[in-house]
TrEMBL record:
GO molecular function, one term: aspartate carbamoyltransferase activity
Name under which the protein is recorded: Aspartate carbamoyltransferase
Gene, per the UniProt record: pyrB
Start and end residues of each Aspartate/ornithine carbamoyltransferase Asp/Orn-binding domain: 163-309
UniProt family annotation: Belongs to the aspartate/ornithine carbamoyltransferase superfamily. ATCase family.
Binding site for L-aspartate: K83, R176, R230
Amino acid sequence: MKRHLISAADLTRDDAVLILDTAEEMARVADRPIKKLPTLRGRTVCNLFFEDSTRTRISFEAAEKRLSADVINFAAKGSSVSKGESLKDTAQTLEAMGVDAVVIRHGASGAPYRLANSGWIDAPVINAGDGTHQHPTQALLDAFTMRRRLIGPDAGIGQDLSGKRITIVGDVLHSRVARSNVDLLHTLGAEVTLVAPPTLVPVGVETWPCEVSYDLDGVLPKSDAVMMLRVQRERMNAAFFPTEREYSRRYGLDGDRMARMPGHALVMHPGPMVRGMEITAEVADSGRCTAVEQVTNGVSIRMAVLYLLLGGNEPAVTNPRTEEK
Protein backbone atom coordinates (compact mmCIF):
# COMPACT_ATOMS: atom_id res chain seq x y z
CA MET A 1 0.00 0.00 0.00
CA LYS A 2 0.96 3.63 -0.50
CA ARG A 3 1.82 5.77 2.52
CA HIS A 4 -1.43 7.76 2.28
CA LEU A 5 -5.06 6.86 1.46
CA ILE A 6 -6.32 9.80 -0.58
CA SER A 7 -8.41 8.19 -3.34
CA ALA A 8 -10.03 4.82 -3.98
CA ALA A 9 -8.41 4.99 -7.42
CA ASP A 10 -4.98 4.72 -5.74
CA LEU A 11 -5.72 1.18 -4.55
CA THR A 12 -4.71 -1.85 -6.58
CA ARG A 13 -6.80 -5.01 -6.45
CA ASP A 14 -4.29 -6.58 -4.06
CA ASP A 15 -4.33 -3.47 -1.82
CA ALA A 16 -8.12 -3.50 -1.66
CA VAL A 17 -8.40 -7.23 -0.98
CA LEU A 18 -5.71 -6.95 1.72
CA ILE A 19 -7.74 -4.23 3.45
CA LEU A 20 -10.98 -6.26 3.18
CA ASP A 21 -9.27 -9.39 4.54
CA THR A 22 -7.67 -7.44 7.39
CA ALA A 23 -11.08 -5.93 8.21
CA GLU A 24 -12.49 -9.45 8.60
CA GLU A 25 -9.89 -10.04 11.32
CA MET A 26 -10.72 -6.70 12.92
CA ALA A 27 -14.43 -7.55 12.88
CA ARG A 28 -13.71 -10.49 15.17
CA VAL A 29 -12.38 -8.06 17.78
CA ALA A 30 -15.87 -6.54 17.98
CA ASP A 31 -17.23 -9.91 19.11
CA ARG A 32 -14.96 -10.01 22.17
CA PRO A 33 -15.98 -8.80 25.64
CA ILE A 34 -13.04 -6.34 25.51
CA LYS A 35 -12.90 -4.78 22.04
CA LYS A 36 -9.28 -3.69 22.13
CA LEU A 37 -5.95 -4.43 20.44
CA PRO A 38 -2.57 -2.99 21.53
CA THR A 39 -1.43 -2.45 17.92
CA LEU A 40 -1.19 1.37 17.94
CA ARG A 41 -0.34 1.91 21.60
CA GLY A 42 1.84 5.01 21.90
CA ARG A 43 0.74 6.36 18.49
CA THR A 44 -1.25 9.59 18.18
CA VAL A 45 -3.93 10.03 15.49
CA CYS A 46 -5.61 13.38 14.83
CA ASN A 47 -9.12 13.57 13.37
CA LEU A 48 -9.08 16.86 11.47
CA PHE A 49 -12.68 17.65 10.51
CA PHE A 50 -13.48 20.86 8.63
CA GLU A 51 -16.97 19.56 7.71
CA ASP A 52 -19.77 18.28 9.92
CA SER A 53 -19.88 14.51 10.32
CA THR A 54 -21.50 11.92 12.57
CA ARG A 55 -20.88 8.41 11.24
CA THR A 56 -17.42 8.95 9.75
CA ARG A 57 -15.95 10.89 12.67
CA ILE A 58 -17.28 8.57 15.37
CA SER A 59 -16.33 5.52 13.31
CA PHE A 60 -12.72 6.67 12.93
CA GLU A 61 -12.52 7.55 16.62
CA ALA A 62 -13.88 4.13 17.62
CA ALA A 63 -11.39 2.42 15.27
CA GLU A 64 -8.45 4.40 16.68
CA LYS A 65 -9.39 3.68 20.28
CA ARG A 66 -9.92 -0.03 19.61
CA LEU A 67 -6.35 -0.10 18.30
CA SER A 68 -5.21 1.67 21.52
CA ALA A 69 -4.09 4.87 19.77
CA ASP A 70 -4.16 8.25 21.49
CA VAL A 71 -6.81 10.36 19.74
CA ILE A 72 -6.99 14.10 19.12
CA ASN A 73 -10.32 15.37 17.78
CA PHE A 74 -10.07 18.66 15.92
CA ALA A 75 -13.20 20.45 14.70
CA ALA A 76 -12.90 23.60 12.61
CA LYS A 77 -15.79 25.21 14.45
CA GLY A 78 -14.47 26.61 17.71
CA SER A 79 -10.83 26.39 16.56
CA SER A 80 -8.42 28.95 15.15
CA VAL A 81 -9.70 28.01 11.68
CA SER A 82 -12.79 30.10 12.45
CA LYS A 83 -10.37 33.01 13.04
CA GLY A 84 -8.84 32.56 9.59
CA GLU A 85 -6.03 30.09 10.24
CA SER A 86 -4.93 28.28 7.05
CA LEU A 87 -4.69 24.54 6.44
CA LYS A 88 -0.90 24.95 6.29
CA ASP A 89 -0.70 26.56 9.75
CA THR A 90 -3.05 23.96 11.21
CA ALA A 91 -0.93 21.16 9.71
CA GLN A 92 2.29 22.65 11.05
CA THR A 93 0.72 22.89 14.50
CA LEU A 94 -0.12 19.18 14.36
CA GLU A 95 3.40 18.39 13.14
CA ALA A 96 4.82 20.30 16.11
CA MET A 97 2.68 18.15 18.41
CA GLY A 98 4.13 14.98 16.85
CA VAL A 99 1.00 13.31 15.51
CA ASP A 100 1.57 9.96 13.76
CA ALA A 101 -1.40 10.08 11.36
CA VAL A 102 -4.05 12.56 10.23
CA VAL A 103 -7.62 11.74 9.25
CA ILE A 104 -9.01 14.73 7.35
CA ARG A 105 -12.47 15.71 6.11
CA HIS A 106 -12.62 18.95 4.16
CA GLY A 107 -15.16 20.78 2.03
CA ALA A 108 -12.57 21.55 -0.65
CA SER A 109 -11.84 18.81 -3.17
CA GLY A 110 -8.11 18.09 -3.12
CA ALA A 111 -7.39 19.28 0.44
CA PRO A 112 -6.20 15.84 1.67
CA TYR A 113 -3.93 15.49 -1.39
CA ARG A 114 -2.50 18.94 -0.71
CA LEU A 115 -1.86 18.03 2.93
CA ALA A 116 -0.21 14.72 2.03
CA ASN A 117 2.08 16.18 -0.63
CA SER A 118 2.87 19.60 0.81
CA GLY A 119 5.72 18.71 3.14
CA TRP A 120 3.85 20.49 5.93
CA ILE A 121 3.43 17.31 7.94
CA ASP A 122 5.38 14.05 8.04
CA ALA A 123 2.59 11.57 8.75
CA PRO A 124 0.23 9.34 6.77
CA VAL A 125 -2.92 11.16 5.65
CA ILE A 126 -6.30 9.41 5.36
CA ASN A 127 -9.04 11.10 3.37
CA ALA A 128 -12.35 11.02 5.27
CA GLY A 129 -14.14 12.89 2.47
CA ASP A 130 -13.12 15.93 0.43
CA GLY A 131 -15.73 18.07 -1.32
CA THR A 132 -17.38 16.15 -4.14
CA HIS A 133 -14.15 14.27 -4.89
CA GLN A 134 -13.43 11.10 -2.88
CA HIS A 135 -14.37 9.14 0.25
CA PRO A 136 -12.20 6.00 0.01
CA THR A 137 -12.99 4.39 3.37
CA GLN A 138 -16.72 4.64 2.60
CA ALA A 139 -16.14 2.75 -0.66
CA LEU A 140 -14.11 0.15 1.22
CA LEU A 141 -16.78 -0.42 3.87
CA ASP A 142 -19.41 -0.66 1.12
CA ALA A 143 -17.32 -3.27 -0.72
CA PHE A 144 -16.74 -5.09 2.58
CA THR A 145 -20.50 -5.19 3.21
CA MET A 146 -21.19 -6.46 -0.32
CA ARG A 147 -18.53 -9.16 -0.11
CA ARG A 148 -19.82 -10.37 3.26
CA ARG A 149 -23.46 -10.49 2.17
CA LEU A 150 -23.04 -11.70 -1.42
CA ILE A 151 -20.19 -14.18 -0.89
CA GLY A 152 -19.86 -14.76 2.86
CA PRO A 153 -17.34 -13.70 5.56
CA ASP A 154 -15.22 -16.85 5.35
CA ALA A 155 -15.80 -17.73 1.69
CA GLY A 156 -14.91 -14.18 0.69
CA ILE A 157 -11.36 -14.17 2.10
CA GLY A 158 -8.94 -13.35 -0.71
CA GLN A 159 -11.78 -12.73 -3.16
CA ASP A 160 -12.92 -9.64 -5.01
CA LEU A 161 -16.37 -8.78 -6.40
CA SER A 162 -15.85 -10.07 -9.95
CA GLY A 163 -19.10 -10.42 -11.86
CA LYS A 164 -21.27 -8.69 -9.25
CA ARG A 165 -23.62 -6.06 -10.67
CA ILE A 166 -23.88 -2.92 -8.56
CA THR A 167 -26.33 -0.07 -9.23
CA ILE A 168 -25.76 3.39 -7.73
CA VAL A 169 -28.82 5.66 -7.81
CA GLY A 170 -29.36 9.36 -7.21
CA ASP A 171 -27.30 12.52 -6.88
CA VAL A 172 -24.11 11.28 -8.55
CA LEU A 173 -23.05 14.81 -9.50
CA HIS A 174 -22.36 15.90 -5.91
CA SER A 175 -21.45 12.47 -4.51
CA ARG A 176 -17.90 11.62 -3.45
CA VAL A 177 -19.31 8.25 -2.36
CA ALA A 178 -20.39 7.48 -5.93
CA ARG A 179 -17.00 8.44 -7.37
CA SER A 180 -15.11 6.36 -4.82
CA ASN A 181 -17.38 3.36 -5.28
CA VAL A 182 -17.11 3.43 -9.07
CA ASP A 183 -13.29 3.44 -8.80
CA LEU A 184 -13.04 0.71 -6.15
CA LEU A 185 -15.77 -1.58 -7.47
CA HIS A 186 -14.21 -1.47 -10.94
CA THR A 187 -10.84 -2.40 -9.39
CA LEU A 188 -12.55 -5.30 -7.61
CA GLY A 189 -14.09 -6.58 -10.85
CA ALA A 190 -17.71 -5.51 -10.34
CA GLU A 191 -19.94 -4.10 -13.07
CA VAL A 192 -21.28 -0.70 -12.01
CA THR A 193 -24.29 1.16 -13.41
CA LEU A 194 -25.15 4.74 -12.43
CA VAL A 195 -28.81 5.77 -12.49
CA ALA A 196 -29.66 9.46 -12.10
CA PRO A 197 -31.59 12.34 -13.65
CA PRO A 198 -29.59 13.77 -16.59
CA THR A 199 -29.08 16.97 -14.57
CA LEU A 200 -27.34 15.01 -11.77
CA VAL A 201 -24.90 13.11 -14.00
CA PRO A 202 -21.38 14.64 -14.00
CA VAL A 203 -19.77 16.03 -17.13
CA GLY A 204 -17.20 13.53 -18.40
CA VAL A 205 -18.94 10.50 -16.87
CA GLU A 206 -18.37 8.67 -20.16
CA THR A 207 -14.72 8.31 -19.13
CA TRP A 208 -15.67 6.57 -15.85
CA PRO A 209 -15.42 2.75 -15.74
CA CYS A 210 -19.19 2.24 -15.53
CA GLU A 211 -22.48 2.34 -17.44
CA VAL A 212 -25.07 5.11 -17.17
CA SER A 213 -28.85 4.59 -17.31
CA TYR A 214 -31.87 6.80 -16.73
CA ASP A 215 -34.27 3.87 -16.30
CA LEU A 216 -34.20 2.59 -12.70
CA ASP A 217 -36.95 0.02 -13.30
CA GLY A 218 -34.99 -1.50 -16.17
CA VAL A 219 -31.81 -1.93 -14.11
CA LEU A 220 -33.22 -3.25 -10.82
CA PRO A 221 -34.00 -6.86 -11.93
CA LYS A 222 -30.35 -7.49 -12.80
CA SER A 223 -28.71 -5.85 -9.75
CA ASP A 224 -26.91 -7.69 -6.93
CA ALA A 225 -26.81 -4.51 -4.84
CA VAL A 226 -28.57 -1.15 -5.19
CA MET A 227 -26.98 1.83 -3.46
CA MET A 228 -29.25 4.82 -2.92
CA LEU A 229 -27.66 8.27 -2.62
CA ARG A 230 -28.99 11.28 -0.75
CA VAL A 231 -29.82 14.40 -2.76
CA GLN A 232 -27.21 16.87 -1.46
CA ARG A 233 -29.17 20.09 -1.42
CA GLU A 234 -26.44 21.85 0.58
CA ARG A 235 -24.14 21.58 -2.47
CA MET A 236 -26.77 22.75 -4.97
CA ASN A 237 -27.09 26.32 -6.21
CA ALA A 238 -29.84 25.64 -8.74
CA ALA A 239 -32.92 23.48 -9.33
CA PHE A 240 -31.81 20.09 -10.66
CA PHE A 241 -35.28 18.48 -10.81
CA PRO A 242 -38.88 19.77 -10.80
CA THR A 243 -40.15 18.58 -7.39
CA GLU A 244 -39.27 16.12 -4.65
CA ARG A 245 -42.38 14.11 -5.53
CA GLU A 246 -41.28 13.82 -9.15
CA TYR A 247 -37.77 12.79 -8.10
CA SER A 248 -39.14 10.10 -5.74
CA ARG A 249 -41.50 8.80 -8.41
CA ARG A 250 -38.71 8.27 -10.93
CA TYR A 251 -35.63 7.59 -8.80
CA GLY A 252 -36.86 6.64 -5.32
CA LEU A 253 -36.79 3.07 -4.00
CA ASP A 254 -40.07 1.85 -2.52
CA GLY A 255 -41.48 -1.56 -1.68
CA ASP A 256 -42.80 -2.21 -5.19
CA ARG A 257 -39.44 -1.47 -6.77
CA MET A 258 -37.59 -3.53 -4.16
CA ALA A 259 -39.83 -6.47 -5.06
CA ARG A 260 -38.48 -6.34 -8.63
CA MET A 261 -34.93 -6.89 -7.40
CA PRO A 262 -33.46 -10.43 -7.26
CA GLY A 263 -34.15 -12.21 -3.97
CA HIS A 264 -30.52 -12.02 -2.84
CA ALA A 265 -30.00 -8.36 -3.78
CA LEU A 266 -29.04 -5.78 -1.15
CA VAL A 267 -30.27 -2.26 -0.58
CA MET A 268 -27.46 0.04 0.56
CA HIS A 269 -27.22 3.66 1.71
CA PRO A 270 -24.16 5.59 2.93
CA GLY A 271 -26.33 7.79 5.16
CA PRO A 272 -27.80 10.04 6.24
CA MET A 273 -31.04 8.77 4.73
CA VAL A 274 -33.88 11.11 3.77
CA ARG A 275 -36.87 8.81 4.21
CA GLY A 276 -39.61 9.49 1.72
CA MET A 277 -37.22 11.07 -0.77
CA GLU A 278 -34.72 8.55 -2.19
CA ILE A 279 -35.89 5.65 0.00
CA THR A 280 -39.14 4.81 1.79
CA ALA A 281 -39.33 3.79 5.43
CA GLU A 282 -40.58 0.36 4.33
CA VAL A 283 -37.35 -0.27 2.40
CA ALA A 284 -35.05 1.41 4.93
CA ASP A 285 -36.39 -0.78 7.75
CA SER A 286 -36.44 -4.02 5.74
CA GLY A 287 -34.02 -6.89 6.30
CA ARG A 288 -32.50 -6.27 2.88
CA CYS A 289 -31.26 -2.78 3.80
CA THR A 290 -27.68 -2.80 5.08
CA ALA A 291 -27.42 0.85 6.22
CA VAL A 292 -26.85 0.00 9.90
CA GLU A 293 -24.55 -2.90 9.00
CA GLN A 294 -22.48 -0.52 6.89
CA VAL A 295 -21.88 1.66 9.96
CA THR A 296 -20.70 -1.38 11.94
CA ASN A 297 -18.44 -2.48 9.10
CA GLY A 298 -17.03 1.03 8.85
CA VAL A 299 -15.26 0.60 12.19
CA SER A 300 -13.64 -2.67 11.04
CA ILE A 301 -12.52 -1.14 7.72
CA ARG A 302 -11.05 1.95 9.39
CA MET A 303 -9.25 -0.25 11.92
CA ALA A 304 -7.78 -2.19 9.00
CA VAL A 305 -6.64 0.96 7.17
CA LEU A 306 -5.03 2.42 10.29
CA TYR A 307 -3.38 -0.90 11.09
CA LEU A 308 -1.92 -1.28 7.61
CA LEU A 309 -0.72 2.33 7.36
CA LEU A 310 0.72 2.52 10.86
CA GLY A 311 1.08 -1.02 12.16
CA GLY A 312 1.95 -3.63 9.58
CA ASN A 313 1.66 -4.83 6.00
CA GLU A 314 0.13 -8.26 6.58
CA PRO A 315 -3.41 -9.20 7.70
CA ALA A 316 -3.80 -9.00 11.46
CA VAL A 317 -4.26 -12.74 12.04
CA THR A 318 -5.76 -13.47 15.42
CA ASN A 319 -5.78 -16.80 17.21
CA PRO A 320 -8.48 -16.84 19.91
CA ARG A 321 -7.29 -20.20 21.32
CA THR A 322 -3.82 -18.86 21.94
CA GLU A 323 -5.23 -15.77 23.62
CA GLU A 324 -7.38 -17.83 25.95
CA LYS A 325 -4.42 -19.75 27.39
